[in-house]
């Protein structure tokens, strides 16, 4: 039993010595690939966040005449669509100027 265990460790030692010249470059490539994946994920998340922010800035509700500013009733015309992406092309949108009066289209 002792000689079998000794043989196993000898074969394992030879296998590790045989792989060792390949191991350093392989670890180098894997480490840089991992860093590349992290960079790619950060870039994708940032690009998606900017895209989502641009989409949300297209919602015109806060500048509409029918927007109340109250969280109970956000819009008197379309309360179910107010402040959502469905309100982007709202047919009932009426802009309000700085005096609080509706502007002409």
Please compute the radius of gyration using only Cα atoms.
32 Å
In N-to-C order, the SSE pattern is: H
Shape: rod-shaped
- Strand tally is 0
* Tally of domains: 2
Structural class, judged by helices and strands? mainly alpha
Strand content: under 5%
> Averaging pLDDT over every residue, what do you get?
88
End-to-end distance, in Å? Answer: 94 Å
Specify the biggest β-sheet.
none
Amount of helix: 40-55%
Query: Helical segment tally?
Result: 1
The stretches of 5 or more residues where confidence is low (pLDDT under 50) are none
Index terms:
105 residues, 2 domains, 1 helix
Tell me what you see in this structure.
The protein contains 1 helix and no strands. It is an all-alpha fold. It has 2 domains: 1-57; 59-105, no CATH class.
Tell me the layout of helices and strands.
Layout: H1 2-56
Quick synopsis:
The protein is built from one helix and no strands. The protein has 105 residues and is mostly helical.
């Amino acid at each position: 039993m002792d000689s079998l265990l000794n043989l196993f460790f000898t074969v394992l030692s030879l296998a590790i010595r045989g792989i060792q010249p390949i191991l350093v470059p392989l670890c180098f490539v894997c480490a840089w690939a991992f860093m590349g994946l992290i960079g790619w994920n950060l870039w994708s998340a940032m690009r998606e966040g900017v895209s989502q922010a641009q989409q949300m800035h297209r919602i015109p509700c806060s500048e509409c005449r029918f927007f109340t500013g109250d969280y109970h009733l956000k819009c008197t015309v379309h309360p179910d669509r107010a402040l959502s992406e469905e309100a982007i092309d709202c047919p009932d949108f009426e802009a309000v100027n700085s005096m609080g009066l509706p502007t002409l289209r």
